[in-house]
Amino acid sequence: MALERKIGYVNLTSGKVETAVIPLSLRESYLGGRGLNAYLLYNRMASNPSSLAPESVVVFGAGLLCGAPAAGAAALHIAFRSPLSERLGSAIVTGHFAAELRFAGFDHLVFFGKAPALSVVAVRDGAIEILSFPGLEGAGTMETVRLCRERLEDEEARVIAVGPAGENGVRLADVRPGFGAVFSGAGLGAVLGAKNLKAVVARGTRGLDVFSPTGSLKYNRDLTRRILQSRTGMRLARSGTTAFFEAANAAGRIRVRDFGSNVFPDAEPLAAGSLETRFPGVSSSCFSCPVACRKLRRVDEENGLFHEGPDLGALCAFGPLLGCRSLEAVLESDRLCRQQGLPPIETGAVLAWAADALHRGVLDASEIEAPLPRFEDPGLLGAWVRRIGAREGFGKVLGEGLGGASEDLPSSAYDFALRVKGLSLPPVDLRAAPALALAAAVGASGPACLSGAPWIDLADLPPGTRKTLFSGPDLFDGPFGTSAAAWEGKARMVFWQELCDMIADSLGLCRLCTAAVDPDLLQFPAFSKMVYFATGLKLDPEETFRIGQRAVCLERMFNLRAGLTRRDDALPDRLFEEPVPQGPPSVKGKRLDREAMNELVEAYYDLNGFTAHGIPTDRRKMSLGLDKEPTHRL
């Protein structure tokens, strides 16, 4: 059955592997994926080790619906302590790995310790092995995927790989699943690299029995139809997330030249139409996804190179954020990030910060090897991506991220960096979008994944639609503003969206199939029905909402134990001091109001049952059953 999957505990130091059955009570409290990961991480890291210490813990969690007939259920969540912030790190990996892990008999993997040599963990049909494959040292992520499949003699094996950047100790380093997306930027590759864990492989043939096959299939057909017929679904199917680039640029919502502007002129070369004309894409789908928003493109005819991307984040990070209009440079930079195991958004952000710092004279150009990072110089991007991955020269400094961790620079060099909790802000201008700004400030794992960001707010929904969407299922009756720039009701929107994202991540659902991007897509009533048909668990929307609250509170408790304070839930001064320079009247001249933002943070705390310092009250913890944590039920 869908609930009969195990947890594997992998001690990389000793090589010992243990397994455990997940109690039904924990399923009812946390579901799976991100929710149960929060419980496992909080309980397993009671000693509070630093992110790169052997004792640190990394938890892989497949969403509870992955492998079942559930539209958009393909996401693996990974929880860890981020080396960029020393707070909670969060990564979402799409593709086929999560379903394959469940087919192999496991829902969660807990890694701790450090392997004596570079290793691969293989999970196959109920067994977990720690293997050593010669020739993986320094291999790119795609090459690592190929070598793992070759050594295991299984082309259907699914692999999550660490690239050279993670092996080299680059704090920015991420992981890659071959073809498939990763949403993180919190340094997971550095953590796994410090553990000498080069790759995790999943392959299973056990299948997955669901509670109600007929009900699952019928409801999945209804959801698939709803997703594909939605305006968002149609746009994603046609062009992927890059379909939103032109509208976002015209609306003045994109960061340009780090923070120099918010409208990128003459951007036609980067538009979705240009991308499809010059580099036609073949649609590629994650497991159980009807949309197939990923696009596989031939980027080098002569050498037969293919690349999956770019998505909207990479397009903005290597395009407008760096003043680059070269589609070739954007594609090549994104491809190199995948090869090196680097996150495109964070990589683009540190390069944009360096270019701005050199322009301002904050960095001494004579101390940085030529050619210097500069805006509007696409020919340099690929070289700097390689330098960051290799920790070469000034690339070593950039690879430390924007958290100010580099010992080679004074902390004042980071004063104007656009960062929260040590991670860079997304390449989106937040000054005329208080809801997105609040989500960036209070997000448990920083602004990278933007959990809790109600992107739908940018569509300027009618007040009635806002109220209908964000008022349930607990019957909130407060006011909502009439535009994205309005402040009313934004704390409630972020509170609600964070719970919606938490449940989606716990079930393994892609957020692009949820109400985060379209009010007609999946949220709490649909979540409850999907869970019932797949598992037999009877959870009404109110109970599902409560599960989200419990997991969000536990992530907050993890961060508080790691040293989080109220001061960490704050945005860079520049968002309050520098008005939006361009764009339509809805954004031009806007900047965040510090007093209003503080009131939003306090309102968000109040909705979550936190004190004015952001600490869950004893009453709140008792009401959610968290007053005795850590309970070590697993």
What are the main properties of this structure?
single chain; 634 residues; alpha+beta; Aldehyde Ferredoxin Oxidoreductase,  A, domain 1; Aldehyde Ferredoxin Oxidoreductase Protein, subunit A, domain 2; Aldehyde Ferredoxin Oxidoreductase Protein, subunit A, domain 3; 3 domains; seven-stranded mixed β-sheet; five-stranded mixed β-sheet; 17 strands; 37% helix; 13% strand
Concise synopsis of the structure shown:
The chain has helices spanning 24-30, 33-44, 97-103, 141-152, 164-167, 188-194, 213-229, 231-239, 245-250, 272-278, 312-318, 327-340, 344-360, 381-390, 395-398, 434-442, 463-470, 490-507, 524-535, 541-561, 574-577, 594-608, 618-623; strands at residues 6-11, 17-21, 58-62, 76-81, 88-93, 106-112, 119-124, 127-131, 158-162, 175-176, 182-183, 197-203, 281-284, 294-300, 305-308, 419-420, 423-424.
